[in-house]
Each structure stands twice: as C-alpha cells, then as structure tokens.
Amino acid sequence: MATDQPSELEQCFEKLQKLISQHEHGKIVKLTDTILRLSPGDVDALACKAIANLQLGEYEEAAKVLAHKQLQQEMHFERAYCCYRLGKFDEALKLLGSVSEAHASGALQLAAQVHFRLDQGAACVEACDKLKAAGQVSSLELKTNLLAAYVSAGRSAQLPELMRQLGMKPRDSFEIAFNRACGLAEVGDEEAAETAVKAAYKQGEEALFDEEFSEEEVLGELAPLTVLLAFLLLGSGRAAAALDKLQPLVAGDIHARELAALAANNWAVASYLTDAQQKGFYSRSIRKLESLLDKGAGGGSLALDPDISTRLNAQQKQLLHLNRALLYLLSGKLDQARELSGLLLAAYPGDASVVMLQAVLLAKSGKAAEADKLLAGFSPSSSSSSSAEEAARPTLLRAQLALEAGNAAAALQLLGSGLPAELQMRPAVLATRVALHEQTGDAAGAESLLQSALKHWQARSAAAQRDTAAAAGLGWCLQRLVALKLSQGAAGDAMSLYQQLSKLGGAGSTTSAAAMAQLARAAAASGDAEAVAVLRKQLPAAYASLGTGLDPDSLEDAARSASSSRRKEELARRRQEEEDAEEAEAAPKAKKARKKRKPRLPKGYDASKPNGGLPLPDPERWLPKWQRSDAKKKQRRRRDRQETVKGSQGAGKVDEALDRGAKAERGEEPEKAKGPAKPNLPARAGSKGKGGRR
User: Fold this and answer.
1) Do 515 and 479 meet the contact criterion of CB atoms below 8 Å apart?
2) Where in the cell is the protein located (predicted)?
3) Which of 337, 401, 480, 625 has its CA 20 to 30 A from that of 602?
4) Is residue 505 within 8 Å of 539, Cβ to Cβ?
5) C-alpha dihedral, 632 to 635 to 636 to 639, nearest 10°
6) Angle at 117 between CA 111 and CA 119, to 5 degrees
C-alpha cells in the first residue's frame, strides 16, 4: 500500500517548528521567505517572520511585515512595540489601546516605558501603579523601573516608602542604589546622594568584575553613575573633581549615545568653571556639542541624533542647545549664537533662560534699550513650573544692564520694587541695594533699608530657632548699621546696636569683632571713656586682662623715651655706615685671586705612562713644510704624476712607430689599411652545414 509523501510546504513548516524551538531567528527569517514564495500571504509565516525580525532587532523590517492586512487585526501589541522601538511613541500608545487581555500585563509595561520616553511622569507612574495593584511587579527589573518612574515623575520623596512596600534595599543591585541616589539628589540632599552613588559605583564594580567584564565594559556600564557623581560634584562647587570623573567618558567610546551627550555637556561646564582660558577650550566644546546634532536634518534645526533625542527629556535637550548657544556667545561667534537663539525662542517662548540669552545678544549688538524692553515684557509661560527665583532672573539681568549703562537709580528701583519681598531681603541683593544707596549719596535710604531688613530677619529668626541664614542676615544688618551710625557721628546708637550684635553672635564672633574694632577707633578718636569701658567688658577673657595695672602717664612717657631712643639709634647707625663707606674707599683694593682652571688633557691620556701613553710629537713641527724631511718625497711623487700624458689630443710624447710619414722617409713600406673585422655569423639553415631543414 502506497503512502502519501508530505508536500514541500509541509516539510518547510516542520522545519520551521524545529527552528522555533531552537530559537534560530536568522534561519527562521530565511525559511519564512521560502514559505511565502510557496504560499503567498500565509498568516502563520508572516507572524513568525515578524517575531523573528523583532528578536533580531530588525524593527523596520518587522514593521513592513506587520503592515500586511492579514496581521493588522491581530498583532496590536507587536505593532505597538515595533513603533516604540522606532520612536513613534504616539502611534504606539494608540495601538496599545486595542491590545487584547492576553497581553494586558505586557501592554501596561510598554505603556509605562512609552510615557517615560515622552517625559509624562504622572502617566508613567499610573501605569506602574496598575501593575503593582495587579501583583505583576515581581521581577527585580520591573521594581527598578518602578523606582525610575517615581523619580522621573518628581515623586522622589515617596521612594523610601515604596521600597519598603516592595521589599527592596539598595544593596539588592547597583541599579536600585543608583535610582535611590537620583531620588536623594532630586529632593536636595546632595551629601547623602553623593554617598549613595559612590556606594552604588563600588557595588557595581564588584558585581561586574565578578561577571568577568573588562575595565572598558565596566566603565561603559557604570557611566550613568559617573555622570550623576560629576553632576553632584559640580553642584557643590568641585568643578576640578567633576572634570576628572568625566574625562575618561569623553575620551572613550560610550555605547549609550544619550550618556555621551550628558557627559559632553557636563564636561564643557566643568572645563569652563575650571579654566575657560585654556587653549582650544571653546572649539573643542563646540565640536563635542555639535556632534550630537542630527546630520540629516541640516542647518537651522534643533534636531538631535535620533538615539539621543528619544532618550532625553525636554529639559535635558533644551540645556544642550542653551549651552551650545552660550559657547557661541562666549567665543565671539555671534552670528551662530543669534541663529540658535532665534530657534530656541521659537521653540521655548516662555523660558526665562532663552529670553535672557536673546537680551544679552541684543545688548552685545549695542541695542540695550531693545534688550530691556524684551526683558520687561517677559512673562513665564503657564506650563512653566519655575520657582520665584528663576522668574526673577530677567529682572536681575535688567538691573545689571542698567548698571553697565551707568544708571544706578534704575538698577536700584529694579532691585527694590521689581523683585518679590523675599528676594529683596536676600543678603546679596540687600548688600547691592545698600551699596547703590551709598553710591548715590542717599544715606537715609540706606539706613531705612537696613532697618526694614533688620525687622525682617528678626521676625524670621523668632519664627525658627535654628535658622542659620536668618542669624547671618541679622548679624550683617547690625554690623552695617553700626558702621553707618559711626559715619554719622551717632556713637550712642552705634553702641546700642553693637550690644544687640554681641548678644546675637557672641563677643568673639568675626562680625562682632569687626564692629568692635570700628567702635574702638571711634571712641578713641572722640575720647569717650564710657564707650571704652563698655567695649572693654565685651572683650574675650583672653584679652580682658591685658593692660591691667598700667598708668597712662607712664605709658606716654615710655612711648616718648622709646621714640627718642629709636631716633638716636637710627642716627648712630647712619653715622657708622658713612664711616665704613669712607674707610672702604680709602683702603687699597686687593687684587682678585685668579681662578685656577682645571687643565684640559687630550683624549686617551694616561698619567702613569711615558708621555701620557701618547705618540711623541714631531721634532720638525716648528719648521716650514717645504723644509721638512718628508717634503722631498712628496715633491718626487708629484713630478712622477706630471710625466704622464694628460691634456688634449697630440699633447705629450708621440710613439714614432705609429707615424706613417716617418716610415716613408726611412724607405719602409707602410702597412695596408685593413678593414674592420667581420663578425662570426651563424650558418644559415639549409646551407652547406648539415642538419638543415629541407
């Protein structure tokens, strides 16, 4: 009985099943192409090919396969993932809404990733919370992503409680420790964040070296931690240390392009803070930031490289462009700076930094009035979440431009009514306002400002018992008021203010000591004994006993006698110097001793041998060369050389045997001329020689 043989298509599907179990994705793609030639539009073959392309990272090929009508109604999750990997985030979110229940958990994870890439922190955390509520957050990777989502959403303060709920600890993995350090940095605890990121780096090194990673691979894997540590060092004013951390990343080849972008940006900032005048700094920094742009987008665009653009948030992208514009400005490339600032102003119209950059460029071009008008009309965008300090930066720039123009009154007005009340009393702003009042000759205005600032800091100090900023502001105001009262001649008011200052900071504080020195000088000049007695009581214990038991009259007499004795000593010293100078001129000058030089001996000289081991000198070396004994030998050789025939033809002695005319005179027959010798040619073939060809 005959058996039916399987067809070629069936054999291909059997082979495909075997390749799928072996995870041979490259061979699966080739085999599905064969199947699709045999059976065009086969749904199973198309699905297998799409999955294999996704596994191989060939997302564009997978998108082409998934575009077939047969797959559009079924593989929504795969299509969404493919769009996510290609950077089509909006389309991916739209497709995730049609995913079936079978892929619900995967759809939530993918939605969280898409929201994270779109810098939508709240939506990302919402998707992660749904996963947590469904009990789907079990793996360490998902827990790490959940921490990252909370940090990106600005909810870093909730990380300790979240880690407690999930049973996570920083020592579980260096990725978790890194996310915890990022959370600490966001809430403003830089010191704890620096400690945490250093511990995470050490933990990561140990784990990766145990897995036999090379040093270059470890450097690349831990690049996020290095960038974060450099950021914290920059924030604490340690630019040189940050530069040392970033230099290996900038000089090496980091696989993650977004980390290379952040490292290049922070490296430029650290280099500028360390030494902006170093040769080639601006050109190197500009080249590094320009290398991050999308080469295919051309000029006049803010497009970054796709690998960078899809992995950085909006704030990071804006900072990259802003720093590049600042480098153009500082390096004198004003045309490029204007072009880039125009693009930034169109992309971020409500951002204070962009508007300030545009204003500085206008001022550089001599258009200070237009710059002031631009800053005066600036209002932060409603979507901007900037603080009051950031919103006040344009006003501070207006004041600076007014000062550069010599308009101190306008700058004073801007620093007063143009700023919020809290910022008006900041030490730096307050000191500038007081200095401007004094510069314009308004002492009353300076005193009124200091009095109001004193009340402000007193109220704040009373509200918070351990407010160091309030104590520092209060001490500064009291010291400046003491100096102002002394300049006005009001020593009594200055003394009462000093009493408050001494109670605030103690008699031994730096601020109190400066005010005490001012008061002491004023009391000594005016002869105020009461003020001197009060100041003496305020002296520290180490100085209070100095001068006790001394009589002022005896001190004055001692000072006079000391002064008289010093004058006498000075006169005696000068006379002695004059006498010494006269004696030195009258005394005969001693001859300078000649310096003995070490003799220079010839090469190979040996003192132990006769004549130093050298050949004896020629005894005739003093005679002229023509009188020496060897001169005759040289002359004889010279004559021998001259006897030889030299010169043109016919010169010198001629051989008579060659002269034909002389032979004829002697009766001898001349020899017949012979022709040239004939060459011996080989015999021709077929001639008399034998063996020729017939």
Assistant:
1) yes
2) Cytoplasm; Endoplasmic reticulum
3) 625
4) no
5) -160
6) 105
